[in-house]
Amino acid sequence: MTPRQCFFACLQRSPPALFEAAVWIAAEHEKEVNTEAVLKNFKDLQQRVSYGLPMLPVSELAQPLLRRMNDLGFAQDDFTPLRPHVALVNKVLERRRGQPLALGLIALELARGLEIPLVGVNFPGHFLLRVPGADHLLDPCGGRRLYPNDCRELLQRQYGPNMKLNAEHLLTAEPVQMLQRLSRNLRQLHLSNDDYIGALIDAERVLELGNASAADYLARASLYQRLDCPNAERFDLEHALLLSDDPIQRIRLTERLGHLPPNSIVH
């Protein structure tokens, strides 16, 4: 099977193999990735983390788990410009630096193996974690507790003072949602590093995961434009037009479609 087929096979399991699916995403971009070796090395990491945890009920071990990861060197990568390796879980395991989502996926897999209750939260701009039923969230980059006021401050720091915290921001993320967010992150990272083929691989995965937005189709259309594939660009612009609720965006999309050649060569 191809890495993409293996990726979707992970999602068909019950429960879905979230972390392994993320490793297969890395394998799509780096042919030398040995998935079995990555998973084996992960088991070694799990043992190291386990040895350093306090003797507490599992329901109280999520924050110590994140602090133990931090003690072992796992932290947010603040180096700019960001490169795709901050979102590829195999590279984050090697470098122990990454985006909050990649660190969160590692934490979720460690928690699963150690039977520690922990779920992901697709908080805007900064992926977070939560122990089911807790009155706070946890930052995967070190384990800091975030209460509602902290979440509001984090949100406004990233999006400005007019951004309001609402219940939707705090919902538990399903595996498909996390992997789609990871794919969007990688799409942007590859694009910002002028790797249009790499970005296209991620853009296609975003759409294949379902429930894609107009912005997702528009992102792939822009990649096809850069790669001089007008028929493919037209296909995605038409889908973005169907999904868009923004009147101004609909006008711009219609104008852009009008500028495409009518009978272009199929790529």
UniProtKB/TrEMBL annotation:
Residues 38-183 form the Protein SirB1 N-terminal domain. InterPro entries: SirB1_N. It holds the Pfam family Transglut_core2. Coiled coil: none annotated. Belongs to the UPF0162 family. This is Protein SirB1 N-terminal domain-containing protein. It comes from Pseudomonas silesiensis. The lineage of its organism: Bacteria, Pseudomonadati, Pseudomonadota, Gammaproteobacteria, Pseudomonadales.
